[in-house]
Specification:
Elements: E1 6-7, E2 35-38, E3 40-47, E4 53-60, E5 65-72, E6 77-82, E7 88-90, E8 99-106, E9 114-122, E10 127-135, E11 143-151, E12 155-160, E13 165-167, E14 175-180, E15 183-185, E16 189-195, E17 205-207, E18 217-218, E19 226-238, E20 241-254, E21 258-268, E22 278-287, E23 291-300, E24 306-315, E25 318-321, E26 324-327, H1 328-335, E27 342-352, E28 355-367, E29 381-392, E30 402-411, E31 415-424, E32 430-440, E33 443-452, H2 454-459, E34 466-474, E35 477-486, E36 506-512, E37 523-533, E38 541-549, E39 565-568, E40 571-575, E41 585-594, E42 600-609
Parallel strand pairs: 1-18, 13-20
Antiparallel strand pairs: 2-12, 3-11, 4-10, 5-9, 5-11, 6-7, 6-10, 8-9, 12-14, 14-15, 16-17, 16-19, 19-20, 21-22, 22-25, 22-26, 23-24, 23-27, 27-28, 29-30, 30-33, 31-32, 31-34, 34-35, 36-37, 37-40, 38-41, 39-40, 41-42
């Protein structure tokens, strides 16, 4: 990965930059975009009255297609691409299987009308192509032409950083890397320049990219504050061949209203039990402008894990410091290793309204004290994440007679401890229970719990199984764990006592209302109540199977209305009608329930439309 710094601008004010610019609309980055990967390259040139035509080289590596997009304040350009084998493709040529082009006028209110020109070649010959551009109309002034070349392959350029505001005098850390698929490309040739958009008085500055960890250029120039853009053009070699790519970013330089001078750190034992409940990092700075600030600190551990915390404070002008708190629980969870931890970054933001504007940024300020995870607040009796489960076949019949489990526990104080624990299935049903005493040494220990296999097999529910509801206490300490261990996914058929489940769930259905009268041909909503019980599965899956009627949809004397049954958004409606020449109409609503063994139970209820009031 290449990195750089450009330093020492106006009056000795330092600005560090590493970036690249994507200046055209098709590939423009937003200010919040910190990384972009693209198979793209850019170019810009002028046509003048004295030289109204130009040729430019376009490097094309192996790709299924590539496009060249030109934008100019002109609608009369002639544009051609010439392949390495001299094949010519020109704007306006007939569309073929390998070439197409387009012309797109651009009308604006504030600028000169122009156009976009697009040439696309499929399965192009790799190598150096020639782009030929000429103005067919007479030029009275220079004409700017911007080009973007897009290739459809996996050789990409990635920009990390930018898209933010930075206080003058601070390092702005950005990075550039080229990828061949997922493999980093080395030996790049990089050309970078810094621009100030819409400021013709600003002379573009060179940006040198480093791969040696050193600082960058030092260039003096007035007018440091404002928005800047940096573009990088990269040449290299990948599996697609020689390639050329471009990338960029935009950044904003703001006044440097704070100067970070360093930090201190200390642990706080708020309950006086000998363990730190939090570690505070205390950045110090000189504030140049009084106001409301936000201070953030990022820590990095030796394993590469990072965490960041921030605090808001009101500062007057002058030397200040403030505590940024990292709780013991967060440090243990997020960093996970002993200190010292590196203070990787400190930022002071001045709040302008509700917007945080960077006032100072410092990187790699140094290590904290050598805090250990054991010195941070933690349970004196705790699970340590270790453990296992294994089936035991004591009679060599191929079925497990017992399930042996082991749970890792760390104790700060040795002694005798009392425990109780359950084995449960995935439905929460208890399959075994153990209680007793165990001696724990100070440090890591293993608690062994062995459960009979017969209840597991008879239950018929496949694993994983759970060592649950562990209660452990002694030596003045206690531990309660809802789940102490999750086993691998045993099957119930691996244990003694397993009998294949052939019993379907029992399904009970009732409906309200169950009688509809009078037969006024109106649709009436029916509310079902469905229950399903199973000897093994506590939650069989219930589904509506069917709704039927003992009469056809339109029969003599039923009013000639249909449909008579409707199900919408889970709601059931049936029509209150019956045939005048028949008997009662009966709707039958049927539900099924499937247990985890695949057995299906059926239940139904009826809704009756009586033929007359006497049968109601």
């Amino acid at each position: 990965m290449k990195s750089t710094r450009v330093r020492r601008w106006a009056n000795g004010v330092a600005l560090a930059l590493l970036a690249m610019l994507i200046a055209l609309p098709l590939v423009a980055q937003t200010e919040t975009q910190e990384a972009a990967a693209a198979s793209i390259s850019h170019d810009a040139f002028q046509l003048t009255p004295a030289a109204p035509s130009i040729t430019r080289q376009v490097v094309v590596d192996a790709t299924t297609a590539f496009s060249v997009h030109l934008t100019a304040a002109s609608r009369t350009l002639n544009v051609s691409l010439v392949a390495p084998d001299a094949t010519r493709y020109s704007l306006g040529d007939p569309v073929t299987s390998t070439f197409e082009s387009g012309f797109f006028p651009i009308d604006t209110v504030t600028t000169t009308p122009g156009a976009s020109y697009l040439l696309t070649v499929s399965n192009p010959l790799p190598g150096t192509w020639t782009l030929e551009v000429s103005e067919s109309a007479a030029l009275s002034a220079p004409l700017d032409v911007l080009t973007v070349t897009l290739l459809n392959n996996s050789t990409t350029l990635v920009l990390l950083g930018g898209g933010d505001s930075y206080p003058a005098g601070n390092d702005i850390r950005l990075a550039l890397v080229a990828f061949d698929g997922f493999t980093k490309v080395n030996a790049l040739t990089i050309t970078g320049k810094l621009f100030r958009p819409f400021d013709p008085t600003f002379t573009p500055q060179s940006v040198t990219f480093h791969d040696d960890g050193t600082g960058g250029d030092e260039t003096a120039n007035d007018g440091i504050f404002g928005t800047y853009q940096v573009q990088a053009d990269v040449d290299g070699t990948a599996s697609t061949g020689n390639f050329h790519r471009s990338a960029g970013t935009e950044l904003k330089v703001v006044p440097h209203n704070a100067a970070i001078s360093g930090f201190t750190d200390h642990g706080i034992d708020s309950d006086f039990d000998g363990l730190f409940d939090q570690v505070d990092i205390v950045p110090a700075a000189n504030i140049l402008e009084a106001g409301n600030y936000m201070v953030s600190v990022r820590l990095r551990a030796s394993n590469g894990n990072e965490m960041q915390r921030s605090v808001s404070a009101t500062f007057g002008a002058g030397a200040v410091s403030t505590d940024v708190t990292f709780s013991a629980a967060d440090l243990i969870r997020d960093l996970g290793v002993d200190g010292p931890w590196q203070v990787a970054e400190v930022r002071f933001f001045e709040m302008v309204g509700s917007d945080p504007v960077p006032a100072d940024i410092r990187y790699d300020l140094g290590p904290t004290a050598a805090y250990t995870l054991g010195s941070l607040q933690h349970g004196r009796l705790r699970l340590n994440g270790s453990g296992f489960a294994e089936g035991l076949d004591t009679n060599a019949n191929g079925l497990y007679d017992f399930l042996h489990t082991a749970v890792g526990v760390t104790a700060d104080f040795g002694g005798f401890y009392q425990y109780s624990v359950s084995l449960t299935d995935r439905n929460g049903r208890e399959l075994g229970f153990r209680a007793g005493f165990a001696f724990l040494n100070a440090g890591d220990n293993t608690l062994d719990f062995t459960f009979p296999g017969l209840p597991i097999g008879q239950n018929g529910v496949d694993g994983p199984y759970f060592v649950s509801n562990l209660v452990l206490f002694g030596a003045g300490q206690s531990l309660v764990a809802t789940t102490a261990l999750t086993t691998q996914p045993f099957t119930a058929s691996q244990f003694e006592g397993f009998i294949l489940d052939h019993t379907p769930p029992v399904v009970t259905v009732s409906v309200t209302p169950s009688v509809l009268y009078p037969p006024n041909h109106m649709m009436v909503e029916i509310t079902p109540t469905v229950t399903a019980t199973d000897d093994r599965d506590p939650n069989p899956v219930i589904n509506l199977a069917s709704i039927t009627s003992n009469e056809a949809g339109n029969m003599t004397g039923d009013g000639n209305t249909s449909p008579d049954i409707l199900v919408t958004n889970g709601h059931i409606f049936v029509r209150s009608e019956r045939s005048g020449n028949g008997k009662d109409r009966v709707y039958t609503i049927t539900y099924t329930a499937r247990d985890f063994s695949g057995n299906v139970g059926i239940g139904s209820a009826t809704v009756t439309v009586p033929h007359d009031n006497g049968n109601k």
